[in-house]
Design brief:
Blueprint lengths: L1 E7 L9 H4 L3 H13 L3 E6 L5 H11 L3 E5 L5 H14 L4 E5 L1 H5 L1 H19 L4 E8 L2 E8 L2
Parallel strand pairs: 1-2, 1-3, 3-4
Antiparallel strand pairs: 5-6
The structure holds cobalamin.
Length: 148
């Protein structure tokens, strides 16, 4: 059985606002579409009402094979932070990002993903610090990561 988590960005701090008051329609569409066509896939939906800590605790408990997240541009910083923490928790996890932000700015999402992958390889070689130079739309910058 393939275990798949589809997640909203955890936004417990926005309790009471529209964004935490209903489940993500895009994610529910995906689940109902796939469910009707594929057997042996178990879906778990993580709602926006969870705090980051609750969200991570669910991922740790479920230990999914695939973690999918839906991100808008406005929530991308929290989305990326969540993905990084999820990756640290379950290192072999396949992560997919979709929704409004990856649709309008896929390069930005790739820019976040590539160092994460490189970080995992570096970690395998027991290196403690990682510095990556990224070039995008003619501008370059250096990102530094401490491997924990
Ligand atoms: C309804 C709606 C809301 C509702 C959401 C209701 C709900 N619970 O689902 C509410 C009012 C809560 C809301 C809140 C917000 N929204 Co809104 N919202 C919309 C709206 C009008 C429709 C979205 C929708 O339901 N579409 C139907 C579903 C089926 O499609 P979908 O969500 O796009 O999902 C599909 C794909 O994106 C993809 N997909 C989605 N997630 C994933 C994940 C993976 C892994 C994969 C592979 C694919 C995938 O597959 C889905 C099925 O086909 C859109 C505009 C639009 N016309 O799309 C704006 C829009 C998405 N919202 C937007 C914004 C800015 C916000 C807020 C930041 C507003 C705010 N200041 O609080 C918040 C943030 C929400 C968040 N989760 O971060 C922007 C996003 C812009 C951007 N660049 O990211 C949009 C595009 C409007 C706009 N033009 O500005 N929103």
């Amino acid at each position: 059985m393939l275990k798949v988590v589809l997640a909203d960005v955890p936004m417990a701090h926005l309790k009471g606002e529209a964004v935490t008051e209903s489940p993500n329609l895009g994610i529910l569409y995906i689940i109902s579409y796939v469910r009707r066509r594929l057997k042996n896939v178990e879906f778990h939906y993580l709602e926006p009402l969870l705090s980051l800590e609750e969200h991570l605790a669910e991922v740790e408990k479920l230990k999914p094979d695939v973690y999918c997240t839906s991100i808008t541009t406005q929530k991308k910083a929290l989305g990326y932070e969540t993905i990084q923490k999820v990756k640290q928790l379950v290192p072999n996890l396949l992560v997919m990002a979709g929704g409004a932000h990856p649709t309008v700015d896929p390069a930005d999402v790739r820019e976040q993903a590539e160092p994460v992958f490189l970080g995992l390889f570096q970690e395998l070689r027991n290196e403690k610090n990682l510095s990556v130079e990224i070039s995008r739309r003619g501008q370059s910058k250096t990102l530094s990561y401490e491997i924990r």
